Amino acid sequence: MKILVINAGSSSLKYQVFDMENETIIAKGLCERIGIDGHLKHTPVGNGKPVFDSDMDFPTHGEAIAAVLDKLVSEEYGVVASMDEIGAVGHRVLHGGSKFIASQLVTDAVKDAIRECFPLGPLHNPANLMGIEACEKAMPGVPQIAVFDTAFHQTMPASSYMYAVPYKYYEENHVRRYGFHGTSHRYVSAEAIRVMGLPVEGSRIVTCHLGNGSSMAAVKDGKCFDTSMGLTPLEGVPMGTRCGSVDPAVVEFISNLEGISVSETLTMLNKKSGVLAVSGVSSDFRDLDKAAAEGNERAQLALDMFNYAVRKYIGAYAAAMGGLDGIVFTAGIGENSPEVRANILKGLEFLGVKLDAEANNCRGKLQKISAEDSRVQVYVIPTNEELVIARDALAIVTAG
Ligand code: ADP
Q1: Contact criterion met (CB below 8 Å) for 27 and 79
Q2: Are residues 209 and 68 located together in one domain of the fold?
Q3: Could you report how far apart the first and last alpha carbons of the chain are, in Å?
Q4: 151: DSSP letter
Q5: In terms of residue numbers, what domain contains 246?
Q6: Which residue among 286, 288, 303, 386 is best mutated to probe the pocket of ligand 1, counting the most ligand atoms within 8 A of its Cβ?
Q7: CA nearest neighbour of 199 among 222, 224, 223, 219
Q8: Between the CA of residue 394 and those of 59, 87, 197, 233, what are the distances in Å?
Q9: 94 SS3 class
Q10: What average pLDDT does range 347-360 have in this prediction?
Q11: Of the residues 145, 323, 326, 373, which has the maximum number of CB atoms within 10 A of its CB?
């Protein structure tokens, strides 16, 4: 069966098509500037056909999906003979609230639940739903599957997910920690348990998803026990442009100082903060590494703050789980920066972490980077959220 995987943003839509016979990607692409003008880059993989890369008119997600489907079956750029070969579409959905512990076949009730979570994921959930509805219209009868970023974290105990604010906000308004990047944490923690040959029961893994957005997870017995992002992706370690955890009083202080609303202040804390703001250089860790190497002290400080925050979470989660068997690094920074990994792990020898500097000098591939005599095994594991979405979609359609 072939499965189309869609990650719809407010003005963009990324896609991949998997042949699930051998879990290979047969096409991938990106629609950009939806609602502005429009551009499609479509890449057939492995069949020798050319890349399509051109401006198109995308007033809504509907036209973008139609253009993608057109390319998938086209003589010149296509990868399937007809749309009948696509057995299901898997959609990345940011927020599933407390409703979904696993991926779901899209029904009216599931769409209502995605809509109910609009206030919790105001940028992503409306776009994700637009992607689903555009596919329903363009491919009637093809099962649509929603895969939630929050689902993996639904196993957290209340002591991990509750905020100490008046209880009615939890009861009536569902204010609590949800966590994000769940599909990634789920994939890399399962891979870690597999490659380490650990029994799932009793395993204690910390997964570090370090990208433009970064989050940490404590995975105990193969299930999420705690995670660093919260009600929204703003909480946790400092990120590219997000501040991470701060004293909430900072919000009022800045909004009074600047004469701006709480919502404008939060936009600043989401988009103009993090390592970008501390360094004054960039949100991209490659730029920070370069600037720090040239002696830029604020770039060095931003890196130090990031590494320190990640290290603190590793220590906290080891304590939370009563010990530690493995640490996993994934996503853009986690997979590609030996320096950041080494600096994060500095000082964790007391926990039984011993890095193999030579093995750590790797990028973008599955690799054990701890020394043979390290009690805690440390791995780089490239994440693959799209494959998990395709696998979930396949499992749901073949079970149903
Ligand atoms: P997103 O959260 O948008 O999915 P990614 O997981 O793709 O982000 O991570 C993107 C980030 O990864 C970039 O902003 C950059 O900071 C970092 N990155 C990518 N390659 C490298 C590298 N070679 N060295 C250090 N950082 C890198």
Answers
A1: yes
A2: no
A3: 15
A4: G
A5: 198-380
A6: 286
A7: 222
A8: 31, 8, 26, 28
A9: coil
A10: 97
A11: 145
Question: Which CATH number covers residue 109?
Answer: 3.30.420.40
Same-domain status, 340 and 231 = yes
Split into its structural domains, the chain has a count of 2
- Residue 14: beta bridge partners? 7, 30
Q: Is residue 392 part of a domain?
A: no
> Torsion over CA of 195, 197, 201 and 204, rounded to 10 degrees?
-60
Mutate to test the pocket of ligand 1, among 285, 290, 329, 344 (most ligand atoms within 8 A of CB): 285
The catalytic site residues sit at 149
The atom number, within ligand 1, closest to the CA of 383 reads 6
Decide: 174 and 161 in contact? Cβ < 8 Å.
Answer: no
Q: Give ligand 1 pocket residues (Cβ under 6 A).
A: 211-213, 240, 284-286, 331-333, 336-337
In ligand 1, the atom with minimum distance to the C-alpha of 210 is 6
- Let me know if residue 172 belongs to a domain: no
Over residues 104-144, the pLDDT tens digits come to: 999 999 999 999 999 888 889 999 999 999 999 999 999 99
Reading the block at residue 61, the tokens are 């997600």
pLDDT digits 0-9 by tens, 354-375: 999 999 999 999 999 999 999 9
Q: What is the pLDDT of residue 121?
A: 85
Tokens of 27: 């096409």
Ligand 1 atom having least distance to the Cα of 284 = 16
Which segments of 211-263 are extended strands (E)? 214-220, 223-227
For residues 180 and 319, the answer to whether their CB atoms sit within 8 Å is no
